[in-house]
Amino acid sequence: MSFSTIRLIFGAAFLLAGLGLFAASSSAQPLDPAQPLDPAQPLDPAQPLEGVDALDAPAPPEGAIPEVSQAVERFRRRDFDGALELLKKAAAEHADMPPAQIVMAQLFSQANQGDAVRASLEQAAAEAPDDPEAYVIMGDIAMGQRRVTEASLLYEKAESLLADFTRSPRRQSILQARNLSGLAAVAEARGEWERAEQRLRAWQKLEPENAVCLQRLARARFQQRSPGDALRLLREAADLDENVLTPEAQLGRFYHEFGDQKNARVWMNNAIKIAPNNLRTRLVAAQWNLETNQLEEAERQAVAATKLDSKSLEANLFRGVVALFRKDYGTAENYFQRAHLQSPGNFAASNNLALALIEQDADEKRRRALEYAVANVRQNPRATEALSTYGWVQYRLGNIDEADRALQQAAAAGTMSPDTAYYLAVVSAEKGRRDQALQLLNGALNARQPFSQREEAEVLLRQLTR
Prior knowledge:
By secondary structure, this protein is mostly helical. It has helices spanning 3-9, 66-76, 80-93, 100-110, 114-127, 133-144, 148-162, 169-189, 193-206, 211-223, 227-240, 247-258, 261-274, 279-291, 295-308, 313-325, 329-342, 347-358, 363-379, 384-396, 400-413, 418-430, 434-446, 454-464.
């Protein structure tokens, strides 16, 4: 298991901490005509694109614009042209409505139709060239896919349009805040911390009680060598939102990101002392210890987390992660099985359950490992981690050619995790591709993130270089 797999467990909900809820509720929210739309998440290339049968379109709230309600019904019946015409009528009559193609993009997003989302956004930009929302959304999508320069250009275009956007003051205010967040993200990605702070300060003026803004502002201040300011801002964020990460733990993450592990340890320990019964604090401490290869302490914190909440999906998943790193495959199986029963559709649970099962000797467990791996590839055909696990399961079962095919496909699908590189190196070495195996092993071992097969990779590298 690599750090990329850990990120499947701990998503981006806890911004900056690297820890969060893996699976948000999929229930649709009522359509707010003035609320900017966010189709970026369904465009995740690891997610399958399904047909409109999967549509969970929003039920318009009481008193909603009649044409919007009718458009949603038309869309459900796949009458897209009819839906668009109704939305155009509504947008012409209601200033707070975004352009019709923006709403169509939302509906296509909820139907998981990525290509249609993109087409609708492009059409929105063409049909409403003075409306900034399409550019903000496309900027968010580009930023989410790490296309920083493209995102910057899109946000800058939106900024120029927002300056003169007077049709809807409500939408203007919402979009300005969102666009400033995007521009700050560009500066953060480039390490331009003073510029990031300027953007975040402007956002803070618009939304002074936004805890996420304060957390990001704290990070910008920290990166400019002001840890005292950072801690003060983190505490302000905690006062505004009791659900944000403990300020001391967050500061520990900042020190970790900065490479100062001595101070990271001090602040992680402070966080545990201040909030010993805080589940997120325990999980962040466990994650930090795992990232710094302190497996015993990672296990201690993961155990504490499961004791605090034995039904926590995240706690059970991470307890299994630590067990995988410690090669305690029976314990890993136990906790991943718990997580899988809690959330049968959770990819991290079933994917890691396959990894735990395949490393055990019982034929029945190895059979189950293959079943999980096959099911994950079918459900996530473009997910690198699914292909990687399937390939490793096939290798462990002795099916070398099938393993090679799957792992080569995983390597071509995107950025390789260290574990995927190790799996492919093992297969390459066995098939006589020594140079490729050496290249893969060196790449895996030079990666900064933790991965569960590091010791095995080091052994194989020594064997190939004798």
